[in-house]
Amino acid sequence: MIPRRVTRAVLAAVGDDGTGPMWQRLSPAGRQVLRLADLEARELGHPCIADEHLLLGILRHDTNPTAALLREHGLDLDAARAALLAVGPTLNPRTDPAAALRGLGIDLDQVRHRLEATFGADAVRAAERRVRRRPWWRGGHARPGPLCRYLLTKRAYHFAIDHADHRGDTRIEPHHLLYGALRDARDPVGTRLSRRGRAGLTALGWTPDRPNPLNLLLHARGIDPVTLAADLAGSRT
What we know:
Blueprint: H1 4-13, H2 28-43, H3 51-60, H4 65-72, H5 77-87, H6 97-102, H7 108-119, H8 121-132, H9 148-151, H10 154-167, H11 174-184, H12 195-203, H13 213-220, H14 225-234
């Protein structure tokens, strides 16, 4: 039997990093939206993709009809980013230790080069691996696992698939993704997450059962998520 960690690594290598059965059904536009959602999360310093990043990915993929529908509701990419900064994301940005040390005049790249020159590159990499495996009480740092990037949106993906199946659509488009995110956002963040998933996200700064930031973001812009979902359900975008 192939270990789960090996299976996950293979899936991540081919691009299916936790999206499961939806990946093969994604249209080119749908795949691009997920890539842009991931990029938005990374640029904001957020450790995992959440429903709010799907919204940003759709708006960033400016040519899809779902982005046009959002603009009709008065929401563009800059406004969505500003609203997200105001309400706060699902997971707060990660602290960048390297940036903090640079502020103190310590250049980690130079330190690493000196260590490699003294002890060898293999020894330095081995030491890094040992530190990464340490629990937090021994100086380790919480970091997202291989599938954490999509853990918070898995439920939204299931809703997107159900929505597409209900409509008889074979491909998952941006409007299916937005509908799934809106449906997921009705409930508190982390609804139906496993105990292991909740524990992993808590270590990354997640607050259990807080309101979904996507809902807060939309309400902050005067948009009713239920009305928006109804518009999506009734359209053939």
